[in-house]
Amino acid sequence: MATAATALGACGPGNRGVQVMVVWSGRELELFRRVLRGYGQPVEVISAGDNIDALLQARRAAGTTPDVAVLSRPGLVADYSRAGWLEPLDDALASAFTPRWAQLLYADGALHGVWVKAAHKSLIWRVPGTLPSPPQDWPGFVTLVRDLAAATGPRPLAIGAADGWVLTDWLENRLAVLLSADEYDQLARGERPWTDGRVRQAFTDLAELWATPDVFPGGGRRALLTQNEESVLQVTATRQAAMVFEGDFVASVVERYRPRAAAAEPFRFPGRPTGTAEEPVRLPLVVGGDAAVVFRGSVAGRQLVNWLVTAEAFRPWVAAGGYLSPNRFVDTHRYPTPLAAELASQLTSEEEVRFDLSDRLPGALTGADGQGSWQILQDFFADVTVNRWAREAAVSRAVERMERAAAAIREAGR
Amino acid sequence: MSREHRHRPTALLGEAVLLDDIGPPRRGRAYPTAGVASLLLLPAAVLLVSLVLWPVLRTVLASVTDENGWVGTAHFHAALNAEGAWAVVGRTLLWAVVVPSIVTLLGYVLAAATRRAPGGRWVTLVLVAPIALPLVVTGVAFHLLYDPEPRRGTLTALVAAVFRLVGADPDAVPSWLGPRLITVALMSAFVWAWVGLAVLVFRAALDLVPTGLADAVRAHGGTRRDVFLDGTWRPLLRRTVAIVFALVALATARTFDLILMMAPGSAVDDASVLAVRVWQTGGTTRGQSAALGVVWLAAVALGMLGAAWFSRQAWPPPEPATRSPAPSAERPRPGRLRRIVPPLAAVLWLIPLVVLIATSLHTRLDAAASGWWSRAPSLDSYREELASSELSRSLGLTAALAAAVTAVVLVVALLAAYALAWLAPPGAQVSGVLILASAVVPTQVVAGPIKEILDAVGLAGSVVGLGLVHVALGVPFAILLLRNALADVPPRRVREARLAVRREWSVLWRLAPATVPAVVAVCVLEFVQVWNDFVVGLLFGGPDATPLGLLLYGQARQFVTAGGPLAAGSVIASALPLVLVVVFRRQVVAGLVSGSIR
């Protein structure tokens, strides 16, 4: 029915509002609608969920492409711009973001989108006051985990290994400090083999940590049946574990069960000791984000996107919480909590951000339940925690499977 | 009937009717009026050709071609040599053999045991209730039951307690949702949901067996074995067993709903069957996925041929009118087994429902962090669900969709059924075969091509598109049921009607009263089917079209932390189909069973 309405609207361009298709639903959708009320002109929002790619393809075939779409994968932005679907945008808009953020939206030398929402994925959460001083470097973190595992009390780590993306996020945080930005990008584009020594090192580090005896509540087998949100409750509600790793969105999970469950606060995912005095440890900063793109020929869409980049546009969502902006113009004082302000300022100031790898990997490697990188990492997790494989063998199997899948995709693309 | 085997036991029984009916019109007298008949058949034909048969051809074509033309068996090689592909094919066959065997055996035993047992009616009600539930709700109930956390999962806690009692290691409780046992867990949920149907069919079949036969065999000195073989098995039971087995085997394609709802991400691959694999690999408009779809279709076709061969009738079944008087009076008192089995089955069958309802009666945090037995009940989860605008919108949409689809299916199917029953349209036999074919096509196989067609007419992701797919999938079964009802009208009444009025519509209208039970059955079954749907919503739904099944699936993404509200939503979603099936059970059963044993 909506399609029919759109088709009618398309007959008389100029007299219909701007149409935006978004990946959000539920509360996020509601808050985005609140944002658009500040635009001053009518905007129609369509929620497409995870199927946005399929829906846009269908809309295109039917000739009812929206003006603007908000996509959660930079890979799609690149695909669409290559297909000639997207309107190139003003380079001036790129100044709202640090170069690393902006670079992801450039294709063929032109900017093809702007970031409208971001996720900070390099955080480890614990109940305040339960751990004295979290270590900043990986070896220190491993030691802490081992000490907690050997002691009585809660297990050191909760992990939602039933969600494959939790494991890929772990891997990305190791890769982010072991590889340079260029090398990380090469891996994402399939130009660097997964059997590379430092990629292997990242897997080996994880294997070493995960294989620690008694590290997860209920062991590896149980961890593989635990989802991300349940792993958060294992820290704040049932107190079966001391720490849990995941992004800034953990805060909203924690909040939902307050005050009966405890609060949680994050520290940064441990990094690599550099051996220099001014920056003793280089911390990883893995991020995710949603970008708005304009479809070719839409003037109204360009105007809307120009407005979305302004400092004031997302004010209602910033104030409501559960939102981080990668936009440098957004005043961090507007965030409802000091934590959100702090995380947002990390996103907009640190130069060395790495964008979520599994969202950038091509085709089958992207991952879904039981597929691609998610499945390979879950099998790797099972090999080191449940099947008790030798570390080397487990690492070899995992990187070789990743490489085989990547090679198959390269082959198909040729 | 692609949706029958995904969905509902019941519709599958249409198959049985068809196995019989694709031969020459067995009810003889017909009025050949080619023009009108073709007109009456047109709506059904357009739907089936565009949304079922063409998509099948498109799939077959896609399996042997790519954008450059003919590729032979390359896609088949690639698809079957992909990692884990043979395991998936093997698991699909395992489902199609093991589950129907268990359902058939259990169904027969429970039917025989509850037939004359005290309180058998209540036991039957408990066994039949799961049929009415959406399969996604079954998935929720069993996910809760098998939850691996000992402080929360009912069965895990129970077994851990037993282990502690006998001195075994309570940490050694098997994890039912883990990679090793996930298929067993899924099968148990499936059997739970389907045994009720088998019980109903066997009960009806056993009622039809003339008791005189057994007495005659006994009188001729037959052993117990002879009595069973000659008095029950050969005359009727063999055929019923073949039909139940075939129906359930076809229906195992519906494990899709259960796998998506119950299998944790890390175990999906260990639970995967062809339905899941075809869906994961992007639909059958792509070569490899199409090749898997063709393999699946071929297996279904072979299975149906086998079933048709086995279900040939060795003996003309007695007319229901000659049904022997209630035999209970002459029978001996029920034996010990008969007294123990029914209540035991009822208790076992109640457990998942108890777990579901008990979980729904706890707050979100209590349901996520502790067992339902350890916390005070609360209505918070219901409040949370009912307060969300998403649920109320989805309930409204699902009700409207189900009502509209039911109405359209009824009209389209009545017209076609009348034409097929009495007007001897040209190609009636071909139509019969085509209807049977469209009734057994799995939805996942045709989903990709159907989407292309919906895209082409601008209905992709809309409520109307969703409704059209439902109609196309529901029409074959409805035609079968109504055709049989119409064909059973005595020829004399048809002749009178035809003499009294001129137009075929008016004839149909005059015959309508005779078909009321079948119409009620079609309406209830179609409505419940659309209401309980998950796959069609998942494959063809969109942002403006989120039916209940899809909504629950969305909520179950983070299963444990959504447990309370999800269970509450499941109970809310199950109420209407349960009431409908219980209230109209007599018509529904009559409609279904008449098809399945005659």
Tell me what you see in this structure.
Chain A has 17 helices and 14 strands. Chain A has helices at 2-11, 26-37, 52-62, 74-82, 99-103, 138-150, 164-178, 181-189, 197-210, 219-223, 228-236, 250-256, 299-308, 315-320, 338-349, 372-385, 391-413, and strands spanning 18-22, 43-47, 68-71, 106-107, 110-111, 114-120, 123-126, 155-158, 241-245, 265-268, 272-273, 281-282, 285-294, 353-355. In chain A, strands 1, 2, 3, 6, 13 and 14 form a six-stranded mixed β-sheet that branches. A four-stranded mixed β-sheet of chain A has the order 8-9-7-10. In chain A, strands 4-5 form a two-stranded antiparallel ribbon. In chain A, a hairpin with a 2-residue loop joins strand 4 (106-107) and strand 5. In chain A, helix 7 (164-178) crosses helix 16 (372-385). Chain B is 74% helix and 1% strand. Chain B is built from 29 helices and two strands. In chain B, strands 1-2 form a two-stranded antiparallel ribbon. Chain B is globular and about 80 Å long. Mean pLDDT of chain B is 84; it is low at 1-28 and 314-330.
